Amino acid sequence: MKEEEVNCCQIQEWYPKFKSVSIRTLIHELPESFVEYLLDDSGPFLLPVSVSNEDALPNTVHNPYEEEDFQVLEGSGDEAEPSSPPSFPELELKIKESIESLGGAVFPKLNWSAPKDSAWISTSGTLQCTSFSEIALLLRSSDSLIHDLCHAYDSCGDKTLSRPQSFFLALRKWYPSLRPDMEFRCFVRGQSLVGISQREVTTFYPALLEKKIDLEVLIQDFFDNNVRHNFESENYTFDVYVTNNERVKILDFNPWGAFTLPLLFNWEELEQNEEANGIEFRIVESRCGVRPGLKTAVPYDYLDTSQGSGWDQFLRNADEELQQQIRSPEAGG
């Protein structure tokens, strides 16, 4: 992997070229002070002071009896100067304006990644945000965004950069009607589409069994007409959403390999598909074939996946079922 290939997948690079076939997005360059805030773990977890008085978390009820438990006696040695929360008024007002222009609700992402691992901490349990404070809460709580901030180029053979010159915040219009079963990851090798995978692999969607052939044709045509000759890399992945009226929308681009999940494939299989000059389309064929470990409502560290645990056995069974589906001639892979 080369730095150039990673850079091409930054949303501020690809979105202007594919705006007409993507979802509405507004992009803001982040001030370095906000980037430093996201990286700072030296003190308590503090959300920025909102100049619009919009808090990400509900206000707590004042209870003087609880305060007694946390009082520090003079001379105890535990006194510390309280940390002052940061404030980013200019950025907040720009984001507030963008949220309003996008219909009042957005989901955020940085150059490459969205804070999917911190959705559990939001009041809605999703990435939906209606204020700057909610966006700051998701970004500040996310471990996956450390990739963008510190490790984006770690897999590059020609690595010269430790981070991009600038970081950007993309605000993408929130569509509550989007169906997760209609999102797919497409794998491109040597400018040829070699694989398509169901994106949400934690659920079995029976309707996909009937639509599989038509969806493959639809996505292949979209790739040939809109992506193949317009994206600058030879090897990459891109995520699409298929609407009810069979329009295809680009959601994201990612580099080939490294930190990108191959979902229902592995990278060796996809490279073999390139040699075979064919497309393989994989979906979850039954309830036993789901991959629960690829998405959870809480951070993955909260799950007990140690040998012999319930999740360990469940994942083993899911892998066995998936391999049986792939080998079965009825699987239609």
Mean pLDDT: 85
* Sequence of secondary-structure elements: HHEHHHEHHEEEHEEHEH
**Strand order of the biggest β-sheet:** 7-6-4-5-8
Shape: globular
Give the proportion of residues in helices. 25-40%
Could you tell me how far the N terminus lies from the C terminus, measured between alpha carbons in angstroms? 28 Å
Account of the 3D structure:
This is Cell division cycle protein 123 homolog. One of its GO terms (cellular component) is cytoplasm. Belongs to the CDC123 family. It is built from ten helices and eight strands. The longest helix is centred in the middle third of the chain and has 22 residues, at 206-227. With 333 residues, it is of the alpha+beta class. Strand 6 and strand 7 form a beta hairpin. It has a five-stranded mixed beta sheet with strand order 7-6-4-5-8. It has a three-stranded antiparallel beta sheet with strand order 1-3-2, sandwiched between helices.
